[in-house]
Design goal:
By secondary structure, this protein is mostly helical. It has helices spanning 2-16, 21-31, 40-52, 58-71, 77-89, 95-118.
Amino acid sequence: SVQECANIVWSFAKEFGSDPSVLLDAILNELTPKLHQCNAQDIANTVWAYATADHSAPALFNGMIPTVIKTLDKFDSQNLANTLWAYATVKHSAPQVFDAAAAAALTATATAITSSATNSSGNNSGNKLDTFNS
């Protein structure tokens, strides 16, 4: 499954560092046609693993862009941070990902401020990017 692939590359990169090339290439070939099935955690773990391993995978990073944007509302702050860090670390140009993340963060902030002003019990917006909910 997509989650299994994401977990394997994450574990391998964490354990073996910067030279898991053979495994990462094999996983990339298996994963690329299934990128649209990834959830927020799958995305974050996968791109983090490739960036951590310093493994060039432009097809992966390009292929993830539509899925990242489509599922951005499902990201928690850790998934978002890891995903953006990975794109920045490999210097993969993805302005649409960063623009969508910035817009989501601004919306979450505005929602938190509005909710805080009108409801002293806190924000119940359900937006996972809303770090003001704690």
